[in-house]
Amino acid sequence: xxxxxxxxxxxxxxxxxxxxxxxxxxxxxxxxxxxxxxxxxxxxxxxxxxxxxxxxxxxxxxxxxxxxxxxxxxxxxxxxxxxxxxxxxxxxxxxxxxxxxxxxxxxxxxxxxxxxxxxxxxxxxxxxxxxxxxxxxxxxxxxxxxxxxxxxxxxxxxxxxxxxxxxxxxxxxxxxxxxxxxxxxxxxxxxxxxxxxxxxxxxxxxxxxxxxxxxxxxxxxxxxxxxxxxxxxxxxxxxxxxxxxxxxxxxxxxxxxxxxxxxxxxxxxxxxxxxxxxxxxxxxxxxxxxxxxxxxxxxxxxxxxxxxxxxxxxxxxxxxxxxxxxxxxxxxxxxxxxxx
Length: 340
Description:
Elements: E1 5-7, H1 16-22, E2 27-32, H2 40-52, E3 59-62, E4 64-66, E5 69-70, H3 82-91, H4 93-113, E6 118-119, H5 143-159, E7 166-169, H6 190-195, H7 199-204, E8 210-213, H8 230-240, E9 246-251, H9 263-273, E10 277-280, H10 284-293, H11 302-307, H12 318-321, H13 325-338
Parallel strand pairs: 1-2, 1-10, 2-3, 3-6, 7-8, 8-9, 9-10
Antiparallel strand pairs: 4-5
Helix pairs in contact: 3-4, 4-5, 4-13
């Protein structure tokens, strides 16, 4: 059994400190960033080494959504920002659905070909025109369109053998502040949020494998940010919306997590609230403090939820992708979303 802590690594190759940390029994996953990427071959070698460290292997994740949040670029297809799919919807809904499926398939297939197991995608936030940190990462302003396009992205990921992670529950699109450097708040009522921003999570149902809550406070519902709130995670997400997959905290080194105390307190609070995994990124000493201090007993459903994140089919090796008819067809289907 692996643990609930998701950590990062320093550079493009593992060093001794990385290897020590990744062998800690409470580490369950590794998240990669742009600094960990030099070339396709280097990424394959890095992922192979990470997978070989543990049995069962650690899962490897990345934020790779397309647009400005695409960690690996050279050697990877330029996937448009998700807002391009929403704009395409306005012109031709069926072509947009086909492009959304292709986006998920291309992202998932290319990542898996290089050893990555999971991308934290798709973004399900609504585009209210208020949040710069979300901005063109959002598919559309209409929750119904977000749901339909998001479902196609998820389907494309599934065709690549990859699970999905909808974010940022119950919605980051209304809150203007950036939770990386501030604590956003959303003053609306629970009914208003459930009727719009959180609606895709209920409508997508069992199609969602994982969810990442927002570092946003919704004071009409709870004084705690969503990722630290049993009200949001247990009562609403799981109880009212029926979600059965894994819950990831957003990065606990972000400013929006400070309402829960220091990073070790935040990790314990997030897990107690209903998170299955907690991310501690860009701060190796903080990750070590969490691993040293955390007291964790696997919840009854943890093994099943983690199992849903494991890739479901063998990956196609990167050199063979260019000869795959399905992959080439997906690239063609993505073209309309790349048009100005």
